[in-house]
Design goal:
By secondary structure, the protein is mostly helical. About 70% of the residues lie in helices and about 0% in strands. The protein has one domain.
Amino acid sequence: MSIGQIELRRLEQLSNTIFGVAMTLLAYQAPREKFVGADPQWHELWRVYGAFGSTLLLSFIVAGMFWMSHQQRLAYASHATRGEVILNLLFLLSIVLLPVTCGLYGNNFEARNVTILYSANLLLIALFNTTLWTIAAVRRRDWPTLITPIFSLLLFVVALGVSLIDPRFPKFIWPIAFLTPALAAYVERRRSRPSTPIPADAPPD
């Protein structure tokens, strides 16, 4: 560890707490609308909780994916400068905001400004994540590591752009983020695959 760098072990403990609390608070934004009858029908339950349930599931999975990425990054680069620590804290702040924007969108999913706000929150999380990965990867010149965070960043950029045009369509773009773990596994598998040695007696091309 060079002078001026900070060990990220304590930040890992803080981030686990923040992610855990934020992912729990997602459910606390559920609608509190009262039903007319004592035994609500399925269509009434779907009308009240359908959009919020979908948003809750999306937000939980996205938060889980970024938690995994965060843990991998802390293992990849176990020490950081003060500036990087501040960036990590801003990243965690964007996670703290997720229950708020999730609740707003889940209860007002047709509102244009609310959709833009939720899209912006997801983009902000991806932006901080990609920035931190870039800082860590540049030191090692490990460019393939950036494929996965850049993919999620571009995806949420597109989703925000679409939300500015029509708030009905971003919900079809956000689930594509679920492919991120598969992409990360594919990149890791390609990197760990041993290269085929060329036989010494092989004829020249």
